């Protein structure tokens, strides 16, 4: 027998009204920050006998034991079991943690995997909110939303720093790598269907992402495998299959099937999109792109900026300024939102020549994508250490300096045809 949990037993309110709530440094009791200390969030599929349903364990200090304003480690492992559960569903459930934790009054959550950040406000702490209540929320929401596959659920939350380090490095990262490797073996050509995602229509009513093995959703959080799992979990939900039988143009990634799908899921707002071009019918952007690329006319190339980058780009625009031109679910040729992992893809702007158009990226982003990007450049063009040819903020923040740098490095974009 399955019981629907409607009430969450925590000392503060739980409602979607709190999702947008921001907790400023001065209002915060404690924070957890995966970019500074070891953190992780993980769903782990277990055998039925390994799990005690609704058991919530905290290993390490509670909020009371943490210093006011301190930065701490946290790692939560949500163990699930059920006869219809599949490991492919794990990342889809994990992705919902962001919503669940954000719905808690006085608690804020961003990021995912081992890079999440959580703040607990002074008010929530004063109301008696504790770490174990995060477990309570995760338990009840996972049981609620995923009752088709999760029969039993147990939550272990680690706050002991040594345990968090162990969970992150010995448990979570190997699992994340395994998932990424599985995806890396898939190509757009090797699958029969792509997936639409309309999760963002709540904010961007006409926006549709078309998710393929080599092009993940622009939020960076929905891979083709995730979209597939989402579709299996909820056949009438946000991710629908798109066939790819009627090719219009292979280079552009244009398909009649894809066009029909975006027409349908955008309620007619969109006529057609291509998968591999930023100039011709590019995919639309909502607001949650990890990165934006935009054409840089002096070098025949493109500049990419990531959300975390606060500085200036050689386009004379900051990330927010680029974002204001790109978002809202409309097509803006020459500008495109995308996920970080798309940068190393063989399908990145394939129609315009591919990754050899990339002339500038913030240093941090360049380092983050270097391994994959360099491997792709080697494979496609025979270029070694391609990232060394790409400018960053330490090299240039204006087009003249950038072009001089690219010329010195012999960057291939300079020899390509102008994009407009
Ligand atoms: Fe889905 Fe795209 Fe929104 Fe990501 S950005 S949640 S893939 S619609
Ligand atoms: Zn979005």
Structure characterization notes:
The structure is a single chain. The chain is an alpha/beta fold. It folds into two domains: 16-184, Bifunctional carbon monoxide dehydrogenase/acetyl-coa synthase(codh/acs), Chain M, domain 3 (2-Layer Sandwich); 193-415, Bifunctional carbon monoxide dehydrogenase/acetyl-coa synthase(codh/acs), Chain M, domain 5, CATH 3.40.1470.10. Helix content is 27%, strand content 19%. The protein has helices at 90-102, 122-126, 131-145, 161-184, 224-233, 256-265, 319-326, 363-381, 399-409, and strands at 28-33, 40-45, 56-59, 70-72, 75-81, 107-110, 117-121, 152-158, 193-197, 209-211, 239-243, 247-249, 254-255, 291-296, 301-306, 335-338, 358-360. The strands form five sheets. A four-stranded mixed β-sheet has the order 4-1-7-6. A four-stranded mixed β-sheet has the order 2-5-8-3, with helices on both faces. The radius of gyration is 22 Å and the shape is globular. The termini are far apart. The relative contact order is 0.10. Residues 200, 219, 286-288 line the site of zinc ion.
Please state the average pLDDT score: 95
Q: Which spans have pLDDT < 50 for at least 5 consecutive residues?
A: none
* Name given to the CATH homologous superfamily of the largest domain: Bifunctional carbon monoxide dehydrogenase/acetyl-coa synthase(codh/acs), Chain M, domain 5
Give the count of structural domains. Answer: 2
Taken from the alpha-carbon principal axes, the silhouette is: globular
Radius of gyration: 22 Å
């Amino acid at each position: 027998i399955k019981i629907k949990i409607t009430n969450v037993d925590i000392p503060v309110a739980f409602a979607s009204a709190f999702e947008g709530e921001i907790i400023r440094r001065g209002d915060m009791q404690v924070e957890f920050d995966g970019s500074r200390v070891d953190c992780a969030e993980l769903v782990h599929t277990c055998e039925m006998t390994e799990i005690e349903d609704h058991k919530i364990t905290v290993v390490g200090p509670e909020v009371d034991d943490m210093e006011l304003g301190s930065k701490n480690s946290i790692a939560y492992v949500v163990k699930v079991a059920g006869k219809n559960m599949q490991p492919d569903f794990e990342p889809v459930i994990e992705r919902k943690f962001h919503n669940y934790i954000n719905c808690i009054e006085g608690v804020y959550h961003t990021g995912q995997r081992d890079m999440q950040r959580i703040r607990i406000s002074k008010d929530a702490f004063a109301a008696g909110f504790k770490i174990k209540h995060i477990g309570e929320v995760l338990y009840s929401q996972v049981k609620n939303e995923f009752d088709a596959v999760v029969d039993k659920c147990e939550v272990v939350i680690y706050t002991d720093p040594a345990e968090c380090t162990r969970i992150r490095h010995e448990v979570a990262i190997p699992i994340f790598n395994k998932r990424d490797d599985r995806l890396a073996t898939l190509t757009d050509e090797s699958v029969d269907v792509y997936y639409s995602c309309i999760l963002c229509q709540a904010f961007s009513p006409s926006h549709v992402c078309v998710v393929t093995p080599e092009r993940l959703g622009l939020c960076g959080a929905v891979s083709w495998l995730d979209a597939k799992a989402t579709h299996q979990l909820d056949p009438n939900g946000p991710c629908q299959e798109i066939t790819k039988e009627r090719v219009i143009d292979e280079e552009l990634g244009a398909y009649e099937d894809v066009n029909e799908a975006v027409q349908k899921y955008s309620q007619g707002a969109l006529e057609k999109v291509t998968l591999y071009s930023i100039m011709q019918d590019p995919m639309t952007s909502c607001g949650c792109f990890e990165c934006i690329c935009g054409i840089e006319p002096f070098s025949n190339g493109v500049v990419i900026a990531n959300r975390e980058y606060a500085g200036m780009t050689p386009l004379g625009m900051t990330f927010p300024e680029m974002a204001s031109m790109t978002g809202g679910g409309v097509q803006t040729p020459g500008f495109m939102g995308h996920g970080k992992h798309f940068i190393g893809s063989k399908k990145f702007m394939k129609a315009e020549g591919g990754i050899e158009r990339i002339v500038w990226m913030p240093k941090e982003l360049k380092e983050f994508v270097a391994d994959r990007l360099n491997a792709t450049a080697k494979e496609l063009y025979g270029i070694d250490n391609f990232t060394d040819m790409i400018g960053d903020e330490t090299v240039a923040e204006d087009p003249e300096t950038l072009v001089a740098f690219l010329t010195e490095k012999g960057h291939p974009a300079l020899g390509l045809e102008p994009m407009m």
